[in-house]
Amino acid sequence: MKPLRVGAVGLGRLGKFHAETLAFHLRDAELAAVCSVTPNERAAAEESFPGTPVFANYERMLAEAALDAVVLSTPSDCHCAHIKMALAAGQHVFCEKPLGTREEECVEVMACCRAHPNQVVMLGFMRRFDPSYREVKRRLDAGEIGRPMLVRSYSVDPAAAIDGALAYLPHSAGQFLDMAVHDFDLARWLLDSEPVSVVAGGGCYAHEAFAAHDDGDHVGAFLKFENQAMLFVFAGRMAAHGYQVETEVIGTEGSLRVGTVPQRNHVEILDGHGVRRLCSQGFLERFETAYRDELQAFVQCCLEGKAAPVTVEDGWCGTRIALAAQRAYRDDSLVRLPLTARGDLAK
Ligand SMILES: NC(=O)c1ccc[n+]([C@@H]2O[C@H](COP(=O)([O-])OP(=O)(O)OC[C@H]3O[C@@H](n4cnc5c(N)ncnc54)[C@H](O)[C@@H]3O)[C@@H](O)[C@H]2O)c1
Fold it and tell me: Do β-strands 263-271 and 274-279 pair in parallel, antiparallel, or remain unpaired?
């Protein structure tokens, strides 16, 4: 099969990893171009991907690189504009989460996708490709824990990465859109239901810098779903021990848990300090397999003309829920999420 020619756009913390995945780890794909507005990332790309054209300008890459698809790992507030540009240039699109940072731009981009029905647009909610979360989904769907009552989901970055989080703060769009959006998507997928209301709390417990962006360094939200299940989300920037991504689903006949101890591997150290397990320290380490499997799925969808397993509508739902949670946090209020909005927009 002729490989899919893919351009990787954005070569930062995640984009570089996606570019390496495309270049070295996927079947039926070729890293055909890379693009970054950051000079030192372009210099590093020249070395990492010899012979691959490196662009400083996205529009130029779209015009000159003869691509089939792009993988967008650009800042969250660029995603919708970058998706539209790729669609206009005739390309398939894989876009990192969140779909957008404003509801209107998400609605516009969904309309644009509907106008290009033969082009795949897939969102990067990689937890849906993680082997552990997939097993939870399979057991849940098989009814093994009865009726799900509560999803409890934590996403907390390691304290050791706080400098990066503070530098990224102006672009992060806030904890709910940047971090908790993964938990919102996960709950929608696991429960196969949509939330109807949200209340939220949190604050700046360690770093006042977040307050300047009307955000907290740690936030929480409680959501009710249409099927009466509950979701409790905790998202933050400072787990002392490492990257704490943890989820529990409590059902009427049992519970399923993922990552309650975020251990790096199976090693346990028994020494003068007691018994210790090493913790994973970041998203690349914890979700390496999931990031590769989601891009492989994207490539196969493009080549085989199949629908994306994570859609632009899923992206919109994630953003819509995150914005509602942000509103609930900022106004200290209960925010309702009308279910009708989803049906109206899907038409
Ligand atoms: N799925 C996940 O778990 C996960 C993890 C990390 C980041 N992300 C998402 O990935 C995206 C990027 O995050 P990051 O942490 O890698 O950011 P980053 O700041 O490290 O990198 C951003 C990159 O985008 C490039 N860029 C900015 N504007 C551009 C433009 N107009 N044209 C071309 N390139 C441009 C920059 O040069 C840089 O290479 C964000 O949307 C973030 O939410 C997702």
Answer: antiparallel
